[in-house]
Amino acid sequence: MSDRRIRGLTLVSLALLGAFCFTQLEFSSSITHFIPSRAEAELVQLSLELIDSPLVRHMVLSVEGGPERTKVAAELADTLRDHPEVAWVEAGFDEDTLRGIYELYFERRVYLGSLHPEQEIPELLSASALEDHAAGLRARLAGPDAMLVARAAPGDPLNLFDRLIARMRAFQPPADDGVEAGDFALVQVGLRSSPFDSERQRGLLRHIEAEFARIAEAHGGEFLLEQSGANRFAVDAERKVHEDVNLISALSISVVCGLFLLVFRSLRHLLIAIITPIGGFAAALAVTIATTPSIHGITLAFGFVLIGVAIDYPIHLMNHHAMAGAGATPRDSVARIRGSLLLSGATTTLAFLSLSLSRFPGLGEMGTFAAIGVPVSLLLTIFVLPAFLTQRPTATPTQQALSAGFLRLTELLGRRPALLWLALLGFIGVAAVGMPQLHWQDDPSKLMTLDAGLLAEASRVQHRVGEFDGSRFVVGLAPDPESALVLNERIYDRLTPLVLSGEIEGVGSLSAFLFSESLQQRNLSALRSVPDLHARIDTAFRANDFKQGAFAQFTTAVEAPGAQPLRPEDLRGSPLERVLAALVELDGRFVVVTLLRGVGSGEVLREALEGLEGVYYIDQREIMAGVYEGYRRSTVRMVAVGAIVVLIVLQIRYRRPVRGLLAFLPAALAASTTLGLFGLFDVPVNVVNAISLLVVLGMGVDYGVFAVDAAADLERQGSTLTSLLISCTTSVFVFGVLALSGQPVLRAIGLTTGVGVLLALALSPLVLALARRTSGR
Amino acid sequence: MAHFARSGGVRARFDETRTLSILTVPIETEGFLYFSPPDRLARVTTHPGASTVVVHGTRVVFEGETGRHELDLASSDIARGLVGNLMVMLRGDLAELRARYAITYEAEGERWQLDLVPRSRDLRALVELVRVTGVGERLMGMETRETNGDATVTRFSEVESGLDFDADGSENVFSLESAGKDR
Question: Are residues A612 and A753 in the same domain?
């Protein structure tokens, strides 16, 4: 095939790939992307499932301002009810909510009086308690709400319905001390989609802002809306990832352009060289788009790293071709370094393939992306790039000066071996002293940055509503809803003493809204077991001026309740539907969740729950930190295995142990010295740093292979080290820019790979000098 | 209504008789009523027990032997109708009164009678009629007849108007924070 045809075919293919990617690209920014896969122990799996369960699918909106804030909040709530992403809206116990609760619960009051009916119902019906009820009711009939009290009293002399309402109110704890509840009007919003689905959540958040602005304007405008919800962080993270992607890509391309202009004095060379990484990037992107529903923004940003990695191959080829002098065709130049290119490409791909096996979906996606992009770039360099290169190569003065300078450096190192050994000992020393001081950080929340302003706003709003702890709760597992509710009541019994003793601040239990059917029947039985119920009530109340038979409605309801016991499905479509989020079906089992506030010690909770089968205290942070620590350890082992595989590949290629070891030296020493520096400078290291070492390993081996291969050929030594310098500068600047990202994941990758690759470059002349000594040149 | 609109702050003694179908005897209460235009009202009950209801705009705080309760009138038509109607009348807001009630006015000499039938369906389910009576510029009483036959009759005496509670230092009576204390 002619060069012209190859060029045309390449450009058309790239255009088609680009068009496919542009039209099919779907972004994601879910934090769950950086949580290990779900094939873990039961507790971990439960914890992961609950991260994206209906429990976290909600927002709290707080309206502050003039006396009409309640109206503003109520109107905002009304407009939100019609939004397709809104599952439910609750604006306090307003009239509609109270009416809904009344219709659902009043007829069932005889089932829902007490969590301990055998003990409490007889107490409620003792002569003295009834006397107190009668006196209390008489006093309330003199109060301002007498009209409503008088209507409900004949059917509920024991205040069973009021007890129910009190339990419900206690579920949502009062605002923290110092917060005046009346200063804010609060709206709770349930979400249909995952809060991490930033595409859908962005639309909802915009709708909320726009509707609030419109309603506030209609009421005079002096109102402040503050919000809390995981969806706000997801949308904000996605926006920041977009910004990072734009910044990183712009800076990467600028630095690479500047380098090419400096070294090759030609923009044509840049355009030719950029075909390779763009081809690799487009191919990897197309495969990812075709095989996954969406690509994470961080993977895309990481994909730009390919520009730094994959551009190494055209740089080597173009630099060697330029230094080859007149008469050498581009394919001659390829043939000269093909072995080194293939070996370095293969080892880099192997390193990234290890990354693709990670159990973190996000990191796995990055690894796969790079493991596709790197070999595609390599193949483009070998088979396509020669068609774009000039037939009459000439080296620029910069290339000649750099090449001559490197030659002098390797000769100096050859003449003064003490310098060489001293430098190597320096690397080993830093690694040996620094690595034991490494500080591993396994908290997964540190992998994502949350906006400080949004956090402060969320915290203010949560204080107003008295929000529960979002990451610590108690779960009970049962085969069916009724068993789950029974278990839930036992959990509540165990936790109540902890609240009373101050070990925890509060408990949010589903039992405030829904009893198990067996407990409901026990309540009814307890009322029915009083043989003289009617007479007993009549006697006590008549002594307080109530008419005889005034409470016949109640005794009739005990004999023949007006409704069946309350079941979970009765709550669906009611104003209290949201409480069903605490009863989740997972893989055929039912999980009932008890929310907690102000947990001091997890141990106390575990002790309190001891002996309850299928009940676990879950501290998501603690669990995830444990999981990440395990992954970090296994990743370090994976890096070691990857290194051994690369070393074996090198030994097979060189068939001489010393040369194989020398080719491996930049990778091994760069990786260990990088960790040593992190230890010495107290840079916290996490699982992402550990995985990034694979990149250092892959690129370090590239440098080692080129250095060792050049040792046997004096003409290649200067140009090889020049190529390595250009490649390394490109990579360091690209990775360096990555370290400026606001996302800790990208920062960790950038810092580790940037420092590691720079160290690998520094080691390359030493390796070349050592290889020359071993080959006698 | 024009007189109420220009009468400023009002203080009055009240005694109330509440006749309920579940009780053998009516409930008698006594106390004082305070109104500071346009939107502050306090009802301080002194007998049979001490209790206070303070209305400030749409916020209502009730404090009595059963504890302290807060309510936002904006969230409830019924509460607005029950609590707010007296305030609307005392500030002479005829337009608001007409919006809430169908009004019938009758007069015979100095005596006059205002019958209010709630427009809100929710409130009409509870209240059949509110009848306000007076002589000349003086408010004499208010009767609330409920749909279930219960009725509350309130009589006002020692009515003082044209008061400025902020100026005479007794504005504390309307404090939401100290409802029920130091009155």
Answer: no
Does residue A608 belong to any structural domain of this protein? yes
Interface touch A546/B24, C-beta < 8 Å = yes
| Bridge pairing between strands A295-296 and A223-229 | unpaired
> Does the domain formed by B2-174 have CATH 2.50.20.10?
yes
Reported ipTM: 0.86
A146/B70 Cβ within 8 A:
no
- State chain B's mean pLDDT as an integer: 83
What is the Cα–Cα distance from A214 to A223, expressed in whole angstroms?
Answer: 11
Rounded mean pLDDT, A379-404: 84
Q: How far apart are CA A247 and CA A322, in angstroms?
A: 32
B14, B16, B20: which to substitute to probe chain A, counting the most A Cβ within 10 Å?
A: B20
Q: Is residue A240 part of a domain?
A: no
Residues 6+ apart with CB under 8 A from A11: none
- Nearest one of A390, A612, A331, A361 to A495, comparing CA atoms: A612
pLDDT of residue B114: 92
Same domain flag for A71 and A200: yes
- Strand-by-strand arrangement of the A58-65 sheet: A86-90, A184-191, A58-65, A223-229
DSSP letter assigned to residue B31: E
Write down the pLDDT at residue A608: 93
Can you spell out the DSSP letters for A28-40?
E--GGGGS--S-S
| Beta carbons of B3 and B137 less than 8 angstroms apart | yes
- Does the beta-carbon distance from A545 to B77 stay under 8 Å? no
Indicate whether A721 belongs to any domain: yes
**CB neighbour class for A633 (10 Å; exposed up to 12, middle 13-18, buried from 19):** middle
- Indicate yes or no: CB of B75 within 8 angstroms of CB of A151: no
Cα–Cα nearest to B40, from B83, B75, B82, B100: B83
Q: How many domains does chain A have?
A: 3
**Spatial contact of A72 and A226, defined as CB atoms under 8 Å apart:** no
Q: How far apart are CA A212 and CA A669, in angstroms?
A: 59
User: Are A63 and A187 spatial neighbours (Cβ–Cβ below 8 Å)?
Assistant: yes
Q: Which of B43, B49, B57 sits opposite A144 (nearest CB)?
A: B43
B50 and A CB contact within 8 Å: no
Query: Do A591 and A724 lie in a common domain?
Result: no
The CA distance from A151 to the nearest CA of chain B, in Å, is 9
By three-state DSSP, how is residue A440 classified?
strand
Q: Report how far apart, in Å, the C-alpha atoms of A624 and of each of A48, A195, A632, A752 are.
A: 9, 20, 12, 23
Q: For residue A265, count other CB atoms closer than 10 A to its CB.
A: 12
At B181, the pLDDT band (50, 70, 90 cuts) reads very low
Q: Quick one: tokens of B164? A: 């400025």
What count of other Cβ atoms lies within 10 Å of the Cβ of residue A414? 16
The residues pairing with B143 across neighbouring beta strands, listed in sequence order, are B131, B153
- H runs (alpha helix) in A125-266: 127-140, 146-152, 160-171, 198-218, 230-264
- Of the pLDDT bands very low, low, confident and very high (cuts 50, 70, 90), residue A122 is very high
Which of A69, A75, A149, A151 is most worth mutating to test chain B (most B CB atoms within 10 A of its CB)? A151
Output the pLDDT for position A39: 46
How distant is the alpha carbon of residue A373 from its chain centre?
Answer: 25
pLDDT band at A193 (very low <50, low <70, confident <90, very high): confident
Structure tokens at B139: 């408010």
Residue A109, helix vs strand vs coil: coil
Between A687-711 and A312-324, two packed helices, what is the crossing angle to 10 degrees?
A: 20
> Which 8-state DSSP code applies to residue B108?
E
- Cis-peptide, bond into residue B48, ω within 30° of zero: yes
Residue A48, pLDDT score: 66
Q: How far apart are CA A308 and CA A761, in angstroms?
A: 14
